[in-house]
């Protein structure tokens, strides 16, 4: 029996039945969004207020102060003067080429989204490491989140909350959160069992064992997850601009639709610069953390 004839014997829904199912699901979601959309949106009001305040703070602060703070944070994390100088030069060039405001808008939403992803992702990863049942439930969800195209899950978010900053944050968090969850789970499960048995023998409680032994030893993996989360959040900048998120993504999108090569190139390079800076700083901090745990300065 050929493949074509075998497939033809499988019962299939006719076009009318399929259309009826789609109409039913679309209608149910529309009714849900009309009835509960405003209530759900109000839950995010504190986050929206903080995001607006943080963006205004970055935009209103003197450029030299922002560069000084960012360079100082880079030095504290890496203890490298070369990386610190590179951060200062990169942000100076961003401002010199007229992309300062959009870069600050992008940084505000990326930093807020990353902090939300970390606040949700690390406890979820710990839960997965502690419970096989939780891992069995959460792992397929993470698989779906990582494989589904970003444009697909933008649809229900936009239908429910409209366009703006909060839908953008939600989209970025959904896209960027899986790495920190997976690597937190992996890092905690890779902690040597002999170390855990020793801590138990010394009378450590489960909470003391978790936060005093497992989480510190898993920190290099957790930091790697945070690093990947930041990278994936930056990768969402252009897509998020399609639902009203201001920043470096909007000029890139404008350059695509209007064929402005230089505009797209410069703003694209600014996104790349942010990605490299965040990547190098977080990796340097992770290496220092690992060296500290290994007893090296």
From TrEMBL:
<dbReference type="GO" id="GO:0031460">
    <property type="term" value="P:glycine betaine transport"/>
</dbReference>
<dbReference type="GO" id="GO:0015871">
    <property type="term" value="P:choline transport"/>
</dbReference>
<feature type="transmembrane region" description="Helical">
    <location>
        <begin position="150"/>
        <end position="177"/>
    </location>
</feature>
<dbReference type="GO" id="GO:0043190">
    <property type="term" value="C:ATP-binding cassette (ABC) transporter complex"/>
</dbReference>
<dbReference type="GO" id="GO:0015226">
    <property type="term" value="F:carnitine transmembrane transporter activity"/>
</dbReference>
<feature type="transmembrane region" description="Helical">
    <location>
        <begin position="260"/>
        <end position="278"/>
    </location>
</feature>
<protein>
    <submittedName>
        <fullName>Proline/glycine betaine ABC transporter permease</fullName>
    </submittedName>
</protein>
<keyword id="KW-1133">Transmembrane helix</keyword>
<feature type="domain" description="ABC transmembrane type-1">
    <location>
        <begin position="103"/>
        <end position="282"/>
    </location>
</feature>
<dbReference type="InterPro" id="IPR035906">
    <property type="entry name" value="MetI-like_sf"/>
</dbReference>
<feature type="transmembrane region" description="Helical">
    <location>
        <begin position="57"/>
        <end position="76"/>
    </location>
</feature>
<comment type="similarity">
    <text>Belongs to the binding-protein-dependent transport system permease family.</text>
</comment>
<keyword id="KW-0472">Membrane</keyword>
<keyword id="KW-1003">Cell membrane</keyword>
<feature type="transmembrane region" description="Helical">
    <location>
        <begin position="229"/>
        <end position="248"/>
    </location>
</feature>
<keyword id="KW-0813">Transport</keyword>
<dbReference type="GO" id="GO:0005275">
    <property type="term" value="F:amine transmembrane transporter activity"/>
</dbReference>
<feature type="transmembrane region" description="Helical">
    <location>
        <begin position="106"/>
        <end position="129"/>
    </location>
</feature>
<dbReference type="InterPro" id="IPR000515">
    <property type="entry name" value="MetI-like"/>
</dbReference>
<feature type="transmembrane region" description="Helical">
    <location>
        <begin position="83"/>
        <end position="100"/>
    </location>
</feature>
<keyword id="KW-0812">Transmembrane</keyword>
<dbReference type="Pfam" id="PF00528">
    <property type="entry name" value="BPD_transp_1"/>
</dbReference>
């Amino acid at each position: 029996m050929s493949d074509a004839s075998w497939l033809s014997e499988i019962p299939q829904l006719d076009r009318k039945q399929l259309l009826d199912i789609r109409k039913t699901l679309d209608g149910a979601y529309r009714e849900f969004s009309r009835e509960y959309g405003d209530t759900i949106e109000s839950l995010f009001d504190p986050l929206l207020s903080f995001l607006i305040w943080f963006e205004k703070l970055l935009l209103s602060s003197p450029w030299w102060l922002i560069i000084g703070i960012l360079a100082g944070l880079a030095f504290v994390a890496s203890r490298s003067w070369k990386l610190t100088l590179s951060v200062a030069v990169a942000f100076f060039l961003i401002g010199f080429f007229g992309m300062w405001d959009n870069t600050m808008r992008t940084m505000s939403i990326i930093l807020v989204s990353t902090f939300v992803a970390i606040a949700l992702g690390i406890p979820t990863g710990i839960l997965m490491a502690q419970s096989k049942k939780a891992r069995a439930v959460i792992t397929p969800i993470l698989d779906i989140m990582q494989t589904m195209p970003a444009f697909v899950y933008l649809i229900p978010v936009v239908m429910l909350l409209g366009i703006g900053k909060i839908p953008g944050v939600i989209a970025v968090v959904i896209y960027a959160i899986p790495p920190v969850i997976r690597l937190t789970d992996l890092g905690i499960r890779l902690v040597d069992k002999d170390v855990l048995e020793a801590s138990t023998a010394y009378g450590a409680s489960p909470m003391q064992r978790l936060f005093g032994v497992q989480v510190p030893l898993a920190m290099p993996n957790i930091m790697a997850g945070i690093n990947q989360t930041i990278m994936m959040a930056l990768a969402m900048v252009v897509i998020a601009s399609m639902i009203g998120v201001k920043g470096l993504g909007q000029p890139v999108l404008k350059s695509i639709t209007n064929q402005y090569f230089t505009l797209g190139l410069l703003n694209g390079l600014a996104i790349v610069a942010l990605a490299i800076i965040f990547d190098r700083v977080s990796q340097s901090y992770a290496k220092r953390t690992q060296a500290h745990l290994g007893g090296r300065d």
